[in-house]
């Protein structure tokens, strides 16, 4: 009951009894009980309360005979109120435990009703509740500690085989929340190779008193393997008999897997040494692989190895020179393979490795033969050295369904070893075979050297042209940065006037066209690996057509024909445009008096015989044809045969490098396609590029030109500075002035320098900066990357943001690893604002 001022000495503690002995005896008992007891009538008037009740509830003397709710209104609506009223209404006993806020105590009340009265026993249970809460808190701390350490504790009753767990044991062993569990099911989770060892260690611990300490593997339902470290102790009764085995488990998979990885790498490093020694001892280039199979079979679970080489008189046919692990009669049907057929033939054609996982389930056409041979996983590596194809080397697994990345890297290394040794042995054979023809070989060598020198000179010329183009594009990007940046500043300062807006839009469109042209020049100048993306050839050709027309001149009419529905392809757009430009320039040179250049994009015709010759006739669907036709002088048969050879050209010295058609061929083949040339003297030339469709995607929507974007498309506010200082380092005065104007408009303080040494002198002096915004290529003997490193060494914590107008490849070459973020020129005010804010974050 709520607290009141106590006057227990004046409180009558028992009702009048008219001298009856039994009620007085009962009253004496109630006065000496440890519980508080009070009685109320059906109108909730207090008829009796022992002294413990008065003390516990801090009740006033005048409460006797009065309604209890009038003195304790705060009880209304509490669990005590509900319990008392329910007991009287239903005439059934009830009990309740609850925290009574006015007294700050936990109370337990038991109510016993009669038709006219309610007897309530009440006691203070605060100490018990505090003990229970402390126990629960301790259990929770133990649970959190187990989760943090990953330890699972267990108690195994050896008599009943029952296991009691503490910790996340179901997650450890992979049992579901409702999955049935017993000792036998737990035993089934242990790896079959480790199960007997675990049981033996348990037996020895029980019988001999040895400490149960073992590390073993378990196999989860999804096939994953875990390593567990288990320690336990046997508990015995007074007679010494083992009763229980208690201990802990902890997942040590990460440590064991790291150790296994280290051991495997060390073992394979030794294996590479043995392979190298075996190869160096070989004397027959066609039997060089024989000693390798025993060395590799056990390590990788190989069932077979075999190798093909080009047929001596027919480079379109492969000949089997070695097989191990496969009987002669089994491999006999495939002793010779056409290039392009099956996995080995595909490797010979594309000079790229082929890996087939889960051979028995694969629908890869290349898997048909190896599936018949019963293999589970298959790998075929090309043997190539100095750009020359020497053959293929295949590995077939009879144990695993796939080869891991480490396995593939190892096979690639072995293939390179084999290629070097096979090439050396063949060179030695050729030296012996042609020893009598020294004079002719010297002449051939001199001619080859001259050809190499010419090729080197042509390559230097192309490299110089690429550098020149890149430099011009860089300077042009600086100009575009100034134009676009000042254009943005004008837009913010000029009044809203439709005529001025049209003029600004025209300037912006021209600048954006210049930006796209610069991007095309940089893509044409750089040499890069393919960066394929899903592309629609129609819009790509249509967008590139203006550059083609400028390249061929006004005397050549360019006609573009695009089919309405053409599936997208997976290609590098820049390399495709470069190939298209090469074909256009060749066509222009073949039409010195002018003519017609026609570029067509279409699905192949159902009667396209050239494509049917390259792929199975039933597989001509799924390809896109790009046809480039001219009305030029054409080519003779002998010229046509060598058209794709690197450095072969019919033009006079200085007019052609001989690399144009080679680039086209290499790009198309690397993109998974085919290229065909049809030509005859005075009949023009027709070049067909067949590119495979990108499977499972729709044609990408044509992207709008940059100049067409409206300010409304730029979502989000432009982030502004908070008074930070930016040091702008730029050798171009106009670009530097633009950057300063933009940054000041974005609420930054700005300092400037024209080169790296000047910037460092500012940082060494009293001038400080939060961010160095620097061009990469600058005069003064220090690049932007070097300046960034020096600035951070001088002032730790300073941020660096790079900018450049060169191609990304030039930046990568100079910057090595990307230490600092990069903003490509030309940049806009909003882009500069976001990149500066991100660099400072």
**What is the arithmetic mean of pLDDT?**
78
Radius of gyration: 44 Å
The outline comes out as extended
Give me the secondary-structure category.
alpha+beta
* Beta-strand fraction estimate: 15-25%
Strand order of the largest sheet: 13-12-11-16-15-14
Largest sheet: 6 strands, antiparallel
Distance between the termini: 60 Å
Report helical residue fraction: 40-55%
The tally of helices reads: 26
Low-pLDDT residue intervals, each spanning 5 or more residues: 1-20, 523-529, 701-715, 808-817
Secondary structure tally: strands: 28
Can you characterise this structure?
The protein is of the alpha+beta class and 841 residues long. It is 43% helix and 22% strand. A hairpin with a 4-residue loop joins strand 1 and strand 2. The chain starts with 20 loop residues before the first helix and ends with a helix. The model is unreliable at 1-20, 523-529, 701-715 and 808-817 (pLDDT under 50).
What is this structure, in a nutshell?
By secondary structure, this protein is an alpha+beta fold. Helices cover 43% and strands 22% of the residues.
Offer a few descriptive terms.
841 residues, six-stranded antiparallel beta sheet, five-stranded antiparallel beta sheet, 28 strands, 43% helix, 22% strand, extended
Write the layout of secondary structure elements.
Layout: H1 21-32, E1 36-41, E2 46-49, H2 51-57, H3 68-71, H4 79-90, E3 94-100, E4 105-113, E5 117-124, H5 126-149, E6 151-157, E7 163-166, H6 169-173, H7 183-189, H8 192-208, E8 212-219, E9 225-236, E10 242-251, H9 253-280, H10 292-300, E11 302-311, E12 314-324, H11 328-331, E13 336-338, H12 342-350, E14 354-356, H13 368-372, E15 377-385, E16 388-397, H14 405-433, H15 438-493, H16 498-525, E17 533-535, H17 537-552, E18 556-562, E19 569-571, H18 573-589, E20 595-602, H19 609-614, E21 623-630, H20 637-641, H21 660-670, E22 674-679, E23 685-692, E24 725-729, H22 733-745, E25 749-753, H23 756-764, E26 771-775, H24 784-794, E27 799-804, H25 808-815, E28 822-824, H26 829-840
Parallel strand pairs: 18-20, 24-25, 24-26, 26-27, 27-28
Antiparallel strand pairs: 1-2, 1-5, 3-4, 4-5, 6-7, 6-10, 8-9, 9-10, 11-12, 11-16, 12-13, 14-15, 15-16, 17-19, 20-21, 21-23, 22-23
């Amino acid at each position: 009951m709520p607290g009141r001022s106590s006057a227990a000495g004046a409180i009558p503690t028992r009702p009048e009894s008219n001298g009856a002995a039994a009620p007085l005896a009962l009253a004496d008992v109630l006065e000496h009980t440890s519980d508080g007891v009070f009685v109320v009538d059906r109108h909730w008037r207090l008829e009796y309360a022992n002294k413990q009740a008065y003390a516990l509830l801090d009740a006033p003397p005048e409460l006797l005979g009065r309604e209890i709710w009038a003195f304790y209104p705060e009880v209304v609506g509490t669990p005590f109120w509900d319990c008392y009223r329910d007991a009287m209404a239903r005439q059934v006993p009830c009990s309740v435990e609850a925290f009574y806020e006015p007294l700050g105590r936990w109370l337990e009340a038991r109510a016993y009703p009669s038709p006219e009265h309610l007897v309530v026993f009440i006691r203070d249970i605060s100490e018990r509740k505090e003990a229970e809460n402390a126990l629960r808190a301790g259990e929770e701390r133990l649970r959190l500690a187990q989760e943090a350490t990953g330890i699972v504790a267990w108690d195994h009753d050896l008599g009943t085989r029952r296991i009691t767990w503490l910790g996340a044991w179901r997650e450890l062993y992979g049992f579901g929340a409702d999955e049935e569990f017993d000792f036998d099911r737990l035993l089934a989770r242990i790896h079959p190779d480790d199960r007997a060892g675990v049981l033996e260690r348990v037996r020895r611990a029980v019988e001999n008193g040895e400490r149960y300490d073992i590390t073993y593997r378990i196999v989860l339902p999804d096939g994953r393997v875990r390593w567990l470290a288990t320690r336990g102790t046997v508990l015995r009764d007074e007679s010494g008999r083992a009763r229980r085995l208690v201990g802990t488990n902890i997942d040590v998979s990460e440590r064991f897997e790291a150790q296994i990885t280290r051991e495997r790498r060390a073992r394979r490093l030794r294996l590479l040494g043995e392979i190298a020694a075996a190869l160096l001892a070989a004397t027959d280039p066609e039997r060089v692989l024989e000693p390798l199979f025993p060395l590799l079979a056990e390590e990788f679970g190989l069932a077979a190895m075999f190798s093909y080489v080009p047929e001596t008189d027919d480079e379109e046919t492969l000949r089997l020179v070695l097989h191990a692990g496969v009987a002669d009669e089994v491999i006999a049907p495939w002793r010779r393979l056409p290039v392009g057929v099956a996995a080995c033939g595909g490797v010979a054609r594309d000079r790229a490795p082929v890996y087939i996982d889960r051979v028995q389930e694969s629908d890869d056409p290349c898997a048909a033969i190896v599936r018949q041979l019963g293999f589970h996983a298959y790998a075929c590596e090309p043997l190539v050295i100095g750009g020359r194809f020497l053959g293929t080397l295949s590995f077939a697994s009879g144990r695993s369904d796939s080869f891991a990345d480490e396995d593939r890297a190892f096979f690639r290394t072995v293939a390179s070893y084999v290629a070097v040794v096979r090439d050396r042995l063949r060179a030695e054979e050729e030296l012996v075979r042609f020893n009598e023809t020294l004079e002719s070989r010297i002449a051939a060598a001199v001619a080859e050297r001259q050809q190499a020198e010419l090729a080197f000179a042509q390559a230097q010329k192309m490299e110089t042209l690429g550098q020149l183009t890149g430099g011009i594009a860089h300077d042009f990007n600086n100009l575009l940065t100034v134009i676009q940046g000042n254009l943005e500043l004008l837009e913010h300062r000029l009044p809203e006037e439709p005529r001025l807006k049209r003029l600004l839009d025209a300037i912006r469109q021209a600048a954006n066209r210049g930006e796209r042209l610069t991007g095309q020049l940089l893509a044409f100048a750089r040499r890069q690996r393919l960066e394929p993306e899903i592309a629609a050839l129609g819009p790509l050709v249509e967008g590139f057509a203006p550059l083609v027309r400028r390249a061929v001149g006004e005397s050549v009419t360019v006609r573009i024909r695009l089919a309405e529905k053409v599936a997208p392809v997976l290609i590098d757009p820049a390399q495709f445009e470069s190939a298209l430009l090469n074909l256009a320039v060749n066509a222009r040179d073949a039409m010195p008096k002018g003519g017609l250049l026609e570029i067509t994009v279409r699905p192949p015709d159902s009667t396209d015989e050239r494509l049917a010759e390259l792929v199975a006739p039933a597989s001509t669907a799924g390809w896109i044809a790009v046809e480039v036709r001219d009305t030029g002088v054409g080519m003779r048969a002998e010229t046509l045969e060598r058209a794709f050879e690197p450095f072969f050209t019919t033009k006079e010295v200085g007019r052609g490098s001989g690399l144009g058609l080679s680039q086209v061929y290499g790009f198309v083949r690397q993109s998974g396609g085919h290229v065909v040339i049809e030509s005859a003297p005075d009949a023009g030339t027709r070049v067909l590029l067949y590119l495979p469709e990108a499977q499972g995607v729709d044609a990408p929507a044509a992207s709008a030109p940059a100049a067409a974007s409206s300010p409304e498309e730029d979502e989000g506010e432009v982030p502004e500075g908070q008074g930070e200082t930016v040091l702008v380092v730029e050798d171009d005065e106009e670009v530097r002035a633009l950057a300063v104007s933009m940054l000041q408009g974005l609420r930054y303080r700005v300092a400037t320098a024209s080169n790296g040494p000047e910037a460092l002198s500012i940082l060494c002096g009293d001038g400080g900066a939060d961010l160095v915004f620097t061009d990469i290529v600058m005069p003064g003997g220090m690049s932007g990357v070097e300046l960034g490193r020096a600035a951070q060494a001088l002032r730790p914590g300073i941020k660096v943001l790079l900018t450049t107008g060169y191609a990304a490849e030039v930046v990568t070459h100079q910057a090595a690893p990307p230490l600092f973020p990069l903003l490509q020129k030309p940049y806009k005010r909003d882009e500069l604002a976001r990149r500066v804010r991100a660099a400072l974050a």
